[in-house]
Amino acid sequence: MRKLVFFIVLLVAITGCNVEDKQEENADKQADDLPRTEEMLNEQEINRLTQEVSQLETELYQEKNRGNKAEEERDVLLQVNEQTRKYLQAMLDKKMDSLGTLTHPSLLVFENRIEKVVDQEIVEVYFSDLQTEAFKAEFEYFVIEDYGYIGTGEFGITYQAVDEQSNALSSVELALKEDEGRWKVSDISFFLNYEQLD
Predict the structure, then answer these.
(1) Which residues belong to the annotated binding site for ATP?
(2) How buried is residue 178: exposed, middle or buried, by Cβ count under 10 Å (0-12/13-18/19+)?
(3) What residue ranges carry the coiled-coil annotation (predicted)?
(4) Domains: count for the chain
(5) Binding site: which residues?
(6) Which domain covers residue 179, as residue numbers?
């Protein structure tokens, strides 16, 4: 009987040791797996962040290209307007000579021309005559917005340069001033419509 009891106690002790060994082994395995899991999570996070950075770089590149294109278009239009400014200055100075001394109300301003009666003859200055080839390539025609005397001895004309779809691409203000019996351009101002360029 004593041998049987001893054998049972010994068996329980051995089984308990095996269970503890198994638990320790499982704990060690979980401890070994933990760094691997963290490493996998870190790799996934790095990959996700790398993809986000790559996407942001792509969007930034595309946005920069759009900005560069709009800036180039503005530069071209500004260059055209600068050429036109010089041309208008010369053409108006020459054409206005034929109008003689402008006196209200003998001056008539229409959508496409200015008229004045001189010695019972109608003298016409067409705005289309003031266009350069570069200007024609950009704008189809002029539309008069406003005109009239803006001060003593000074006459103003404001018109828009309009494209084929009737979009106003820019506005131009001309100030004409009488000088020694002839009308000269005293000021030309350009206002670009940037909404049509974007």
Answers:
(1) 177
(2) middle
(3) 39-73
(4) 1
(5) 177
(6) 1-198
